[in-house]
Specification:
This protein has a domain at 28-189: Tetratricopeptide repeat domain (Serine Threonine Protein Phosphatase 5, Tetratricopeptide repeat, Alpha Horseshoe), CATH 1.25.40.10. Helix content is 62%, strand content 1%. The chain contains 23 helices and 2 strands. The protein is globular, with a radius of gyration of 27 Å. The two termini are 25 Å apart.
């Protein structure tokens, strides 16, 4: 049985899937970890640059609280030593000590914030523990300090404490608490909290999904000039989330955010120029923008450059260079790059053919939820590539991809149910999966669903419906449907 899955490496070159998703960010934006919903450093800066940034932040805070010597520069380590002095001398601890054991009371955020200089210092010290600057990294201590400053009504601390609850950083994960803390900080004008509230509503974190509410919060932050909010609004306009789809407005928001240095927006603006989304198509400008973002270490841009070199978009085609860019992004854990690097190894494009390496890369991409990798790896499991014949694993991978909304996976599962491949034969389930794939306008799904109606597979025969489905598939250029219509 042949599931007739078109291998991703021969799919048309496209970029619409590559735009970055919105993501929860910490107020300090200093931690670089995996994507949503983890803490993310959106600046793309190096560790040294971040150390300088936090040193500057802490100096600004401390200069208002305690005179600093102008003869010796403030380093992160020295800042950590200074903050506790201020911290204790003002008696700001909100927890007690019983039997030698520290305990933290549930935060009671005052309705009228009593913001003091101590709160800023406490929060700054939490940032140091969060990132391990000058002290050993300590999640619980960071969360405790954020909580302490949050109880004093300090909006940045409320925002960072919310992030801790969002991901379980030093505290038990609690999306509802995170949402409420974001609201408290946003009410005080914290733009990062406004952005994060939008992300919560967009993705359903601690609240029902509501794209319009997400857009409202993004706009509030964007009106204050927040670059990430502008970029997220661009994503909304590009996809029609909570607003009418408008590529020109998407491009405009990406450009505004890019001019403010938002790395995702720089890459997304490049995608707009590459494809002519809301702006005149300009492959060379796209390459320039991709290179800027790639130099900042943005994996998505590196992968985009790899695709440009593979297909000769805006540059001279060079498969070796393409593979190098894929590897740069793959080494950062980018799922899409892992997949395309796997294709390079499978087909010997820019690297020596190595099917075992390809399968390993597909597996890594699949484990990160990349549906194309799940589909292709499932096919290899069916075929038994490199001795990995495993129909159970193939079905598992198809189901994972289908759960992410993949029409191809739904169609492949339908074929498996129809012929009893890896599952018990079930023509009703086959029909249901073909229908789900057809509803996503997959031409192969429309054609096979038409065959179900024509032959009465899992449904009563209905030639009228069958013809309509064959025509829909034929209109999309599906050759089997075109040939079949000629025979009727």
């Amino acid at each position: 049985m042949n599931v007739n899955f078109k291998s991703p490496n021969v799919l048309p070159f496209a970029r619409q899937e590559f735009l970055s998703k919105t993501q929860i960010i910490s107020y300090s934006r200093l931690t670089q970890t995996p994507p949503l919903p983890d803490l993310v450093d959106s600046s793309g800066a190096s560790v040294d640059a971040l150390a300088l940034e936090i040193t500057s932040l802490t100096m600004n805070l401390l200069s208002e609280i305690k005179p600093l010597s102008t003869t010796s520069p403030l380093t992160p380590k020295k800042a950590v030593q200074l903050i506790p002095d201020i911290h204790f001398q003002n008696g700001c601890y909100l927890y007690g000590n019983e039997g030698g054991q520290n305990f933290i009371k549930e935060p009671l955020i005052p309705k009228k914030p009593q913001i003091t200089k101590d709160a800023a210092a406490i929060h700054a010290l939490g940032v140091f523990y969060q990132n391990g600057y000058g002290v050993a990294k300590n999640e619980k201590e960071a969360a405790r300090l954020f909580q302490e400053a949050a109880c004093l009504g300090f909006a940045p601390a409320q925002c960072d404490l919310a992030v801790c609850y969002q991901i379980g950083f030093g505290v038990k994960k609690d999306l509802v608490k995170a949402l409420n803390l974001f609201k408290l900080a946003a009410e005080q004008g914290c733009t990062t909290a406004m952005v994060n509230l939008g992300v919560c509503y967009e993705n359903g974190y601690g609240v029902d999904k509501n794209f319009k509410e997400a857009v409202k919060h993004y706009r509030q932050a964007a009106d204050k000039g927040d670059a990430i909010a502008l970029c997220n609004l661009g994503v909304c306009y590009e996809n029609g989330y909570g607003v009418d789809k408008d590529l020109e407005k998407a491009e405009s928001h990406y450009e505004q955010a890019a001019r403010k240095g938002e790395i995702r927006a720089i890459c997304s603006l490049g995608i707009c120029y590459e494809n002519g989304y809301g702006v005149k198509k300009n492959p060379r400008e796209a390459i320039r923008l991709f290179r800027i973002a790639a130099k900042l270490g943005y994996a998505n841009a590196e992968c985009c450059l790899g695709l440009c070199y593979e297909y000769g978009e805006g540059v001279t085609k060079n498969l070796t260079t393409a593979a190098k860019f894929y590897k740069l992004a793959a080494d950062k854990g980018d799922a899409r790059a892992l997949f395309y690097l796997g294709l390079c190894y499978e087909h010997g494009q820019g690297v020596t053919t190595n099917l075992n390496e390809a399968l390993s890369l597909y597996r890594q991409a699949a484990d990160r939820g990349y549906t194309k990798a799940q589909l292709l790896l499932a096919l290899h499991c069916e075929k038994g590539s490199c001795g990995q014949h495993n129909l159970t694993e193939a079905i598992k991978l198809y189901r994972q991809a289908a759960a992410e909304g993949s029409a191809e996976a739904l169609c492949n599962l339908a074929v498996c149910y129809e012929y009893g491949v890896g599952v018990e034969e079930d023509i009703v389930e086959a029909f249901n999966h073909y229908k789900a794939a057809a509803e996503k306008k997959l031409p192969r799904g429309q054609y096979y669903l038409g065959l179900c109606y024509e032959k009465g597979i899992g449904i009563a025969k209905d030639l009228k419906v069958a013809l309509e489905l064959f025509q829909k598939a034929a209109n999309q250029g599906f050759q089997e449907a075109i040939d079949h219509l000629k025979k009727l």
